[in-house]
């Protein structure tokens, strides 16, 4: 049994970046930024909290999303999270015992959360921090420590 | 001087000074003592798993075993003092640093023995690294190292099996300053991967599948990296011909490195195996062929030569005493395609890892032609970005891979050549040239919308 490196993960499936530019399993939440389907200038900030299943969705200037339950934005968020991370990793992170997630309804079935108020600023700040990685300088100096990271 | 090709009968043997001809296609033999060393390290890892803040009788015994194992070495006294302090509940950073050093010394001894076995079986010539002194960190660097170390102490006290987000989060918040401080680029690359991996797994209590050995490796490597800067490999300017053999991709969600392995021929010097590393920070949405569009600008001729192998004339590049080559010279592709899988590597020099990097995970000995008899192919060591899957060896005429050790020798495939194609990163590199949508551009445009609206 080889154990120095993690088990190989599948390569992420194709994601709709224009629709969901940001999705991440972070700080105890599945969170992300979802583009509005009607207004190209508008984006929504959404999340589902691990464990409780509590969720929220609002525009970035904190106008709540009109949809009830898991709205279309959360549906898009979950769909893209499943593409990026795979059902197993999303289910494990959220605390769903049945890891066969096909859509947001498989999460709703297992976690009984309610809509909750939230400050979109926290998720948005993390999105900007996430984007910062693209700007960090690249290099050609050796990085031997990366030998441990084969499949992440 | 040119890369000589393998004899047509495929046998690669050589006579040196009347010594018996070595079968260079033989499987390496696991040296004695590796299993015993592993048992000592496993004990330390269990102690780190349950947390140094409360030592069970098993953990105390395991630390004692570590003390015995390094007694009589230059580290012996420091490690035994540190263990005594930890058992008394004095859990200071330098005590844990000594524990990490003791564990690393055992891994280092195993690494040396494994590398000797690999070199013998492949017919390579081993050369020690050449190193200058370790630089002293300036005040800012030292402060960042101490802050990283404080977090490493916290997680060792809690134990890998008792981590929750509140223990891990401080490290995530501190990554930014580390990443923006080039003298600590190695520590930043390591901690970014490690901290996100722990955050992804937290809370860890109750989990039965924790990769204790892996996390203890990462922890002790980071502990040493945050205690003192490593010795600097020597640098010299070189001119010669590089034959790229293949490329390994290593990555976590935020950084990807392409490590090219090649044979470098320099006038008046032995033929030498070298590595060239190209690294870019990334986000996980940047995957697939787009990874190559971001890496290629760092060394366009090299990336092209991996997709479509040719030899490269290199003038005035920097060779490091660690066996690495920097991509800072003039490069000219030479006419004529080469077949990496047909290059005879026997007799080439390979550089042993510098002291701080002596760990089995760092061992990657290029193999061409076919994997040694009896050594399994390890597709799970090959990145999903490399475009190689189980079964891609079928129908292959030639092979390039890396001999590795992970509880047994294995061969990580880098590429398979068939009559028609080169399987491996070559396809992704070609596809990258045709990409239209750039993920980074989409992400930045969307972020711009958010910024204007908020």
What's a quick, concise take on this entry?
The complex is a heterodimer of chains A (152) and B (454). Chain A is of the alpha+beta class and 152 residues long. Chain A contains 4 helices and 4 strands.
Structure, described:
The complex is a heterodimer of chains A (152) and B (454). Chain A has a domain of 100 residues. Chain A contains four helices and four strands; from the N terminus they run E-E-E-E-H-H-H-H. A four-stranded antiparallel sheet of chain A has the order 1-2-3-4, with helices on both faces. Chain B is an alpha+beta fold and 454 residues long. Chain B has three domains: 89 residues, no CATH class; 87 residues; 198 residues, no CATH class. Chain B has twelve helices and eleven strands. In chain B, the strands form three sheets. A five-stranded antiparallel sheet of chain B has the order 4-3-2-5-6. A four-stranded antiparallel sheet of chain B has the order 8-9-10-11, sandwiched between helices. Chain B is globular, with a radius of gyration of 23 Å. Chain B starts with 33 loop residues before the first helix and ends with a helix. At the A-B interface, strand 1 and helix 4 of A face helix 6, helix 7, helix 8, strand 2 and strand 3 of B.
